Amino acid sequence: MKHYQALFEKSPLAILIIRNSKIERANRASGTLWETSNIYNVQGKSIFELFHEESFEFVMPKCSKKEHFTTEGKIICTTNKTVDVLISNVTLQDNIGIVTYLTLQNISEQKRAVSENEKKFRFLSNHAEEIRENERTRIAQEIHDELGSTLTVLKMDLFWLAKQLQDTLPAKCASKMTTILEYVDKSIKTTRNLITDLRPSILDHLGLLAAIEWQVNKFKEQCDIICSLKLPKENPVLDSKCNTVVFRIVQESLNNIAKHAKATEVSISLISLKNSLLVKIIDNGIGMTKQQINATHHYGIQGMHERVNFCCGEIAIFSEEGKGTIIFFKIPKSITESCSHD
Asked: Residues 43, 22: contact at Cβ < 8 Å?
């Protein structure tokens, strides 16, 4: 028994014995954890005085059956400071009644380090997203200015040449000229589609709603899928980067539906609220499992989360096998300075 007593007192971890919601015994490390030199500021106190309300359920015994679990919680120090702790709980019944043994470890520094790493990751992710969009815009402009202009001039020169030689050009050469013109027309069309996919000019010139309507019409033309669209009367006032985010997520969702969902119907709705824009995309396709939604190699879904984080928004994806998929995300209409620098 003396060995157990020595272990209890000298343990570097805080150890509490709780009975009837009160701390029956506490070791010296408990005083250190609660930032007090007087152990009686812990021992004899109610759990409601020492623990944050979020942690009450983790320290109160629920039944007389033996129970053991480990979880994260919070305590309230004697200095009124909130501290993050790792709680190990063992609940059992002795000859007096139900008793709970707790060990607690301060994990505030670890959580702070994780939080800082998350902020750094978000900053890098946001920076990468911004670079991607800027690069898309630059490439689209280059293609438009160089390749697009060159093809247009080539088409005009071919028309001029064909007109000048129309009376002297052999039939075979005239046929070849027509074929060349058809290839140039196809190249011009392909170039325009490539420019639009990289950066749809309609998004910059006519706004988000027109761009989404154009994307949905394009989706209808390419896929045999019924698609309904509900839009607000006016363009929501969003940061220009967030306009791009909303458009890209809708675009990515429609691409995924076309490739994987095997859906016959899709509905998209945008709801403009006072402080945010809500977007819901629903399909009746084959759906996904939770494992598929959370899979790290699903870069499309990961990209959606990163884009929404870029605007300090929220996203949720609900799906079941055979029951379709719902993508729901919310974008704030104004981004706070602290959020934009996270």
From this structure: no
